[in-house]
Write a structure and sequence with these properties.
Elements lengths: L1 H7 L11 H14 L2 H12 L4 E3 H6 L5 H13 L3 E6 L2 E6 L1 H10 L12
Antiparallel strand pairs: 1-3, 2-3
Helix pairs in contact: 1-2, 1-6, 3-5
Length: 118
């Protein structure tokens, strides 16, 4: 999971600028989250009972074909946001909490959350 390794080396954006490699890796993660369907998938998985969701739960939540949902899940797995486990004929997806925590920490301001000046 290259994204997790990339984030391990990143300080919050407000402390020091990202280098080119860090920015490229993080852009892939944010690009994956920038799609409304993928953002909803992450939200559904994260809020689902037990912290995991069956692919059948995800397919039922969208008016999209199963191959389209599978494509979105593949993208989310490739950037390290989701993991999966096959159980019998179903695949269950889980959030990678370390990556979400790292993304959150990366976006923190030095003074804490909520310091937005307008």
């Amino acid at each position: 999971m290259e994204s997790l390794e990339l984030l391990d080396c990143c300080s919050p954006l407000a402390r020091e600028p990202l280098d080119e490699e860090q920015a490229a890796g993080l852009a892939r993660v944010f690009k994956a989250l920038g799609d409304p369907v993928r953002l909803r998938i992450v939200s559904i998985v994260a809020s689902h009972a037990g912290g995991e969701a069956c692919v059948c739960d995800l397919t039922a939540a969208f008016a999209l074909s199963q191959p389209t949902i599978s494509h979105h899940l593949k993208v989310l797995k490739e950037v390290g946001l989701l993991t999966s486990e096959r159980r019998a004929s179903w695949v269950y997806y889980r959030i990678v909490p370390e990556l979400l925590a790292d993304l959150s920490a990366l976006l923190q301001t030095p003074g804490g959350v909520g310091e937005i000046s307008r």
